Amino acid sequence: MQEEIGLLQELERIGAEAQAGLDQVADAEALATWRQTYLGKKGALTAALRSLGRLPAEERPIVGQRANQLRETLEASLEARQAQLDQQALTAQLAASAIDVRLPGRPQSLGAMHITSQTLRRIYEIFGGLGFQVFPSREVEDDVTNFQMLNLPPDHPARDMWSTFYLTDPGLLLRTHTSPGQIHAMRHYHPEPLRVILPGKCYRFEQVTSRHEFMFYQVEGLAIARNITMADLKGVLLSFARQMFGPERRLRFRPSYFPFTEPSAEADMDCALCGGKGCRVCKGTGWLEILGCGMVHPQVLRNGGYDPEIYSGFAFGMGPERIAMLKHGIDDIRLFYSADLRFLQQFA
Ligand code: DAH
Predict the structure, then answer these.
(1) Which segments of the chain have a pLDDT < 50?
(2) What pTM value is reported for the model?
(3) What angle do CA 60, 61, 63 make, to 5 degrees?
(4) Which end of the chain has a smaller Cβ tally under 10 Å, C or N?
(5) How many helices (H) does the chain have, and how many strands (E)?
(6) What is the whole-number distance in angstroms between the Cα of residue 144 and the centre of ligand 1?
(7) Mutate to test the pocket of ligand 1, among 260, 290, 301, 312 (most ligand atoms within 8 A of CB)
(8) Nearest protein Cα to ligand 1, atom 6
(9) Is the CB of residue 258 below 6 angstroms from any atom belonging to ligand 1?
(10) pLDDT of residue 201
(11) Domain range list for the chain
(12) Ligand 1 mean position to 292 CA, how many Å?
């Protein structure tokens, strides 16, 4: 009887110790050790069962039954703990390999319109309002259209006004100005009247400086109809200058020379910065040169298909970078195409 009670107490002790130990088990290895300690062949429970033989036969079933219960309880606890540990391991693994959706995204820099494009659009808008259509024209020209049709035969000294990139294909070149577009536009529209602007890139084989680029834009203007006079030219250009630079602006026309216009002029605008008093920007003169212009030469009209006895026209050519420089106080044309974001972002 004494033995039986002692053995039952021993089983209780083993059970309590095992359950408490199981709570401390933190991984699979510790669990295997725990299993050996309490359920293994050399474990505590097996040892207790071995001493069953010392009990009288009638007491054995009670203790044996209790021992079997305990084994089942411990095995169930083991299984539950095992499941718990598996779940913990899975959770940890998922957490370690998870994509952290809270990470900030890679910043996508926003594009913006280039200052030249902005200026061109404003120019289109103003001339659109004056009835001028945009007429696109090619950048690779032939010598005939770029020069000869504009009264610049080979070896004409005025060709020195345009340092030229000639292509290896004989007779082809990168247009030095948008003026050859006049020929294309006239041949497209004749014998109807026309009012067009011809925007695009031009190329010059020149030393690049703060005032000269080897590639730049021009916007050419051309109007042809009956009875067009220089007053029309002046009116259109004054309207442009005032819409672009402010309603106070004044223009003056200085005689000049271009082989494709007669008479030819250079248009100056009064300096908006100093109001004409003279400053650093206008170099003390109070005036800023903004474009070349004139009345279309009779031979150029003929080359475009128009009869100069019936039709007359005016033409002009301006540099939109120069317009942008005057408008925004930019002092170096090289900034436009040097792809320097510090410059470009100021106009974004
Ligand atoms: N093509 C000239 C140049 O590049 C600019 C020019 C002057 C255009 C007078 C014209 C004009 O249409 O009439 O220097």
Answers:
(1) none
(2) 0.72
(3) 65
(4) N
(5) 11, 9
(6) 17
(7) 260
(8) 317
(9) yes
(10) 98
(11) 2-93, 115-347
(12) 5
